[in-house]
Amino acid sequence: xxxxxxxxxxxxxxxxxxxxxxxxxxxxxxxxxxxxxxxxxxxxxxxxxxxxxxxxxxxxxxxxxxxxxxxxxxxxxxxxxxxxxxxxxxxxxxxxxxxxxxxxxxxxxxxxxxxxxxxxxxxxxxxxxxxxxxxxxxxxxxxxxxxxxxxxxxxxxxxxxxxxxxxxxxxxxxxxxxxxxxxxxxxxxxxxxxxxxxxxxxxxxxxxxxxxxxxxxxxxxxxxxxxxxxxxxxxxxxxxxxxxxxxxxxxxxxxxxxxxxxxxxxxxxxxxxxxxxxxxxxxxxxxxxxxxxxxxxxxxxxxxxxxxxxxxxxxxxxxxxxxxxxxxxxxxxxxxxxxxxxxxxxxxxxxxxxxxxxxxxxxxxxxxxxxxxxxxxxxxxxxxxxxxxxxxxxxxxxxxxxxxxxxxxxxxxxxxxxxxxxxxxxxxxxxxxxx
Length: 435
Prior knowledge:
Layout lengths: L2 H9 L6 H12 L5 H14 L3 H12 L15 E5 L7 H11 L4 E5 L9 H5 L11 H11 L1 E5 L6 H11 L7 H14 L4 E8 L8 H17 L3 E8 L7 E2 L1 H12 L5 H17 L6 H13 L2 H12 L5 H4 L9 E6 L4 E6 L1 H11 L15 E4 L6 E2 L4 E7 L2 H14 E4 L9 E5 L2
Parallel strand pairs: 1-4, 2-3, 4-5
Antiparallel strand pairs: 5-13, 6-9, 7-11, 8-10, 8-12, 9-11
Helix pairs in contact: 1-3, 2-4, 2-8, 4-9, 4-10, 5-11, 5-12, 5-14, 9-10, 12-13, 16-17
Keywords: Glycosyltransferase, Transferase
Family: Belongs to the thymidine/pyrimidine-nucleoside phosphorylase family.
Subunit structure: Homodimer.
């Protein structure tokens, strides 16, 4: 078999068979296919596409390129949750202790943030001493003992995807549906869950800005999951403005604590309920959506989820006192308001610009070597459909550098669109896809 022949075949619009895809991924991962040939293949895929069977085969080949976690030692139905990423997206941190408190085992692999979207691990590391660098034995034991563990992805989890993504990133071949779907699902399937709930974001702050593209990606991923024997559901959610009011690591942790006390922002909780409902249904902890929603409400009101969150943080080396006293979490030296220059109604908040502003402050990574400042970020005091008067505060910049605060303030101010007419808020949950 020759890579040249496979490139030519795909360039001509023909299907690659299972054996060819398996060979290609194995040889590329082991360094016997050079980058320039794989670049030619990904470009051919961008122009010619892949059908469902090819996309599934590519996913499974990447999944099997490294470790596949065996979670069979964990009792119960393991339901994983994945988000395609967004600004202020702290859903996992609210949701996982809720479902864990309701008897659904949470064995989750999470990543760090890069660019304008935040990472779950970065947020958790706002707690002093917290670590996601835990052994597989500790990971499994934690889930069996307290019902929840979140670990960083191992270096050998779908290594083919890691190598292929790095190549796609520098050859303008990231935005192809089959390549995106197989990249995400290869890691999810390697993580060992029994069922998967996907939060596919759409809007200005999302990777898939057009709703039809988000739906197409969701359908592709659901198809892969179901073909792999994992019941998979996707929920399309809005990311036209940041989720919740806080953007930035420790600030988002404080909002998570508020949410687990029952004081979470409405938009955040709408997404938490939508995803949590699907997780409880897949885990067979609820017979229908109404029962699932009632269970989630009960977990929050009775502080079951808050207690589970504290137990989880302490189990992985964190200081649970910081949950009881959030002022102990990292905080910024300066808090600077961004003021409205006109009156009207908030029509739009460009989520991506808010994310970039947070990154400018040091709350996100411009590259993999960037150091995170956990105390900085942005609190939005006005959201879409809110009225505002001239001179009122739109947002609060939390900064450790006055120079960075000035840059971030400009980005935040420009992210807001103020109209004279009342603006309507888009629904947070667009649709649910099961097949």
